[in-house]
Amino acid sequence: MAAELSGAPLRISRPVRRGRSATTEAPAVRVALVGLVFVFLGFFLMLPLVAVFVEALRGGISAYLAAIVEPDALAAIRLTLIVAAIAVPANMVFGVAAAWAVAKFEFKGKSLLVTLIDLPFSVSPVISGLVYVLLFGAQGFFGPFLDAHGVEIIFAVPGIVLATIFVTFPFVARELIPLMQEQGSGDEEAALSLGASGFTTFLLVTLPNVKWALLYGVLLCNARAMGEFGAVSVVSGHIRGLTNTMPLHVEILYNEYSFAAAFAVASLLALLALFTLALKTFLEWRFAGAIAAERAH
Amino acid sequence: MRGRARTWRKRSVLPGFGLSLGFTIAYLGLVVLVPLAALVIKSAGLGAAEFWRLATDPRTLAALRLSFGTALVAATINAVFGALIAWVLVRYRFFGRRFLDAVIDLPFALPTAVAGIALTSLYAPNGWVGQFLQPLGLKVAYAPAGIVVALTFVSLPFVVRTVEPVLAEIDRELEEAAATLGASRAQTMFKVIVPALLPALLTGFALALARAVGEYGSVIFIAGNIPYVSEIAPLLIVIRLEEFDYAGATAVAAVMLAIAFVMLFVINLLQAWSRRRFGYGS
């Protein structure tokens, strides 16, 4: 500007280009770091995954299928589906209710409530099972009462469901709370001022706003519910065909040295994990803004 | 009715506060708090002397020491590699980046029992990896080293996922300023970037540690489970339960629960510090 005004010829001196920008590393370092990450993740994450499928198919495809359609395996698959079908919707309803209370209202003790919701993540799965044994087991607080009324919880399906609900408790809530806090309640207030009832507002305004985050939370919750081992192992009693979930069935087969069969059932769980990861990645890629709270609504 | 002053919450035009909060607290209480209270009551009922005797039993102490020692090693490995992975994923653009980013969450999605048998088959003396370690005199499966491998696997995502968002938000201008002031890249790295990442790194480390200490499913297959040598604390709880030694199981569990609470408290402090000092971090 000043040069133009004074009439002098404008000379723009090009900045001296160094080999790279000041905020990155030398190309060789970058290549080395990326290579190191590939090696580390390939070795620690991919290799075990590959091993599951190789071991599962070691006995051939017919042995693989036979291990899966075997009656005890089918019973384990059925029980796993039943448990997830109860635990996941229960925690979904809880997650929505908790997110509504925490995100749309201001009240005392809110941060304590959020900490308590995350609590099951900090507890060892074995302890999550143990607490129900202490409550409902034969020697537990309610044991004699349950026994007198012929109700079985521990070493039966209800105990497995309870332990699964415990370990998958925070998943949906923790996906929804930050997102709904970010979104605020302007949309809902507008709907209410236009005469919508509270329930209609929730159904037609709030739910569509959070549907992808809800699906995301449900997905993670379901993966954990179907794969939970420690907590379920403590309360199940390992009765074949009755109280064995898929992960427990894998353990029994493995301990009986039926490795191919154990890996065959395990490969179904690994497929579930891969499906979960694929869908999760797709949701993150396609609906990043509708899931992550960091993005503007 | 609405006119009545409620001092413990701000008034809002949105409905459903009582219903949603009531349901939340009732469900939280029934599913989580009452069962955990049962553990606390049961261990309190043991009496101080009996509790101390059970909690300081040599086998219990050995199991707790092993669980913590191996979890600490695994969390440290993951702090180093987690920070590196987060750096590479956030800062570099290369073929396969999105794929790697998706793979990071595999330990969250893969059931622990599946991870356990897969790692055992890899590191067993005749396994894909174990056959190369065997001649070197390295025993991984059925030894404490195997526990570290399993715990590294299950706690791998924590550091990556806590450091990633913070790293993405760090202002490049800070690094440019450091460079214009004559700092070398290494100086910028250790004096500008690492201090900014420290709270997230520590949070991820604490989360990984908390997860690894309580881990059961993946460890029991690979550990060998020899008392005093490769028997982790959660396994000892299960063994005590199978012996119908409820008092013994409860004592070990109460110690672990107390430690978990302390770690949860530390994680919350770290996050509060991070928010105060840097203005971000979840």
From TrEMBL, chain A:
Its main location: membrane. GO terms for molecular function: ABC-type sulfate transporter activity. It comes from the Bacteria. It is a multi-pass membrane protein. Keywords: Cell inner membrane, Cell membrane, Membrane, Sulfate transport, Transmembrane, Transmembrane helix, Transport. GO terms for cellular component: plasma membrane. The chain crosses the membrane at residues 31-54, 75-103, 123-146, 153-171, 191-207, 259-279. It is found in: Cell inner membrane. Pfam families: BPD_transp_1. The keyword Signal does not apply. Gene3D superfamilies: MetI-like (1.10.3720.10). Residues 77-278 form the ABC transmembrane type-1 domain. CDD domains: TM_PBP2. InterPro entries: CysW_permease (IPR011866), MetI-like (IPR000515), MetI-like_sf (IPR035906), Sulph_transpt2 (IPR005667). Part of the ABC transporter complex CysAWTP (TC 3.A.1.6.1) involved in sulfate/thiosulfate import. Probably responsible for the translocation of the substrate across the membrane. The complex is composed of two ATP-binding proteins (CysA), two transmembrane proteins (CysT and CysW) and a solute-binding protein (CysP). This is Sulfate transport system permease protein CysW. It comes from Afifella marina DSM 2698.
UniProtKB/TrEMBL annotation, chain B:
It is a multi-pass membrane protein. InterPro entries: CysT_permease, MetI-like, MetI-like_sf, Sulph_transpt2. Belongs to the binding-protein-dependent transport system permease family. CysTW subfamily. The keyword Membrane applies. This is Sulfate transport system permease protein CysT. GO terms for cellular component: plasma membrane. It comes from Afifella marina DSM 2698. Part of the ABC transporter complex CysAWTP (TC 3.A.1.6.1) involved in sulfate/thiosulfate import. Probably responsible for the translocation of the substrate across the membrane. Part of the ABC transporter complex (TC 3.A.1.6.1) involved in sulfate/thiosulfate import. The chain crosses the membrane at residues 12-41, 61-90, 102-124, 136-160, 192-213, 219-239, 251-273. Residues 64-267 form the ABC transmembrane type-1 domain. The complex is composed of two ATP-binding proteins (CysA), two transmembrane proteins (CysT and CysW) and a solute-binding protein (CysP). PROSITE patterns: ABC_TM1. Keywords: Membrane, Sulfate transport, Transmembrane, Transmembrane helix, Transport. GO terms for molecular function: ABC-type sulfate transporter activity. It is found in: Cell membrane.
